[in-house]
Write a structure and sequence with these properties.
By secondary structure, the protein is α/β, with parallel strands linked by helices. The chain has helices spanning 17-29, 46-56, 91-97, 116-125, 155-168, 188-196, 234-243, 287-330, and strands at residues 5-10, 32-38, 63-68, 85-88, 102-105, 138-143, 170-171, 175-178, 184-186, 201-207, 215-217, 253-255, 265-266.
């Protein structure tokens, strides 16, 4: 639990159950939490939003509300005194406060009707709130010269990857690539292998990195939980890749709204040419360092599995409760 005084910023236009669930989740991590309502009158005045939240959270002593005067994007917003941590689901808001406060990205709570955009559209168009569409991926063979690396790679791990690919004579899993900038978000070692061996093409899944369904952390548990060690952003990812200031190996953990399924592509289809030097991609480190990184990653996986077990336990308990209710009603 973080003892810092935190403020969760948003326009909340309109306030909905997704906001409530997110705030309740945050109160467990921040025992001194303020909901900061920025001024916006698209649906209701900030004063009305505050009244709603005051009523909803009146029984929670650790949650307070305030109206933040001014406009964050214009630099005219002023936060209450004593605030140490700024929480938001808007990267642009966090960008403004970085360097002045600790900033933490808060993913939205997913659910039918848990989107202000969907609710506003439904109100304006007088139709039912649409279900979210299934996320569709685009698989494509791309020019490897159009891609930008994000992280350096581990030398021994790269050798092992090379052995496996050359044994199979195929790249089994595609790279995952930001469509706009060509950033290799997943598959750094496969990318390094293809570059080193002179291949002109690479199998890729193209994604829109600006999509809120895709997010980044620096630990596997950040798929579910954000803690004080969450210190990476999409903006920093793009800056690093475009500037060539690569992250060390295994710094980022990208989370996608789809499974990383196999898409085997034979090496012969990737048009091999002259080998290239990839010295700038190789991390200068010892075998022992690589082993420590591998052990650390295994610990992350174990921790994530434990979190999943806790979620499953909660779901099973809810299921048993509902079954009990059914039996009581049937009797």
């Amino acid at each position: 639990m973080n003892s810092s005084k935190a403020i969760f910023l948003g326009k909340f236009q309109p306030p909905h159950l997704g906001h409530v669930r997110t705030i309740l989740r945050l109160k467990d991590a921040y025992p001194d939490l303020t909901v900061g309502i920025t001024e916006d009158t698209r649906i209701m005045p900030a004063e009305e939003v505050k009244k709603i939240f005051d009523e909803v959270f009146r029984d929670f002593d650790t949650i307070s509300t305030t109206i933040v005067k001014g406009v964050v994007e214009e630099g005219s917003a002023t936060l209450p005194e004593g605030v140490e941590v700024v929480l938001s689901g808007n990267e642009k808001v966090l960008d403004y406060f970085r360097g002045k406060y600790e900033t933490v990205y808060v993913p939205r709570t997913e659910g039918l009707g848990y989107s202000g955009t969907e609710i506003r559209e439904a109100i304006g168009m007088k139709k039912q709130i649409p279900l979210r569409k299934e996320y569709r991926v685009e698989r494509k063979i791309v020019e490897i010269g159009t891609l930008r690396p994000l992280e350096r790679v581990l030398p021994t791990h790269l050798l092992n990857i090379a052995k496996m690919i050359e044994k199979d004579r195929e790249v089994r899993k595609p790279l995952i690539v930001d469509r706009r900038h060509g950033i290799v978000l997943d598959g750094s070692h496969r990318y390094a292998y293809l570059m080193q061996q002179g291949y002109r093409l690479a199998p890729a899944v193209l994604v829109d990195y600006e999509d809120e369904a895709i997010f980044v952390g620096n630990h596997l548990k950040h798929r579910f939980l954000k803690d004080q060690n969450f210190r990476i952003s999409k903006k920093e990812v793009v800056r690093r890749a475009l500037s060539g200031d690569l992250f060390p190996p295994r710094t980022t953990r990208h989370f996608f709204p789809f499974r990383k399924e196999d898409w085997p592509v034979a090496l012969e289809k990737l048009e091999r040419g002259e080998k290239r030097s990839i010295d700038g991609l190789i991390e200068p480190c010892s075998l022992e360092t690589e082993l420590e990184l591998d052990r650390g990653y295994i610990e992350e996986i174990d921790e994530e599995i434990e979190i999943i077990r806790e979620y499953l336990k909660e779901e099973k308990e809810t299921r048993e409760y509902l079954l009990r209710q059914l039996r009581m009603m049937e009797q």
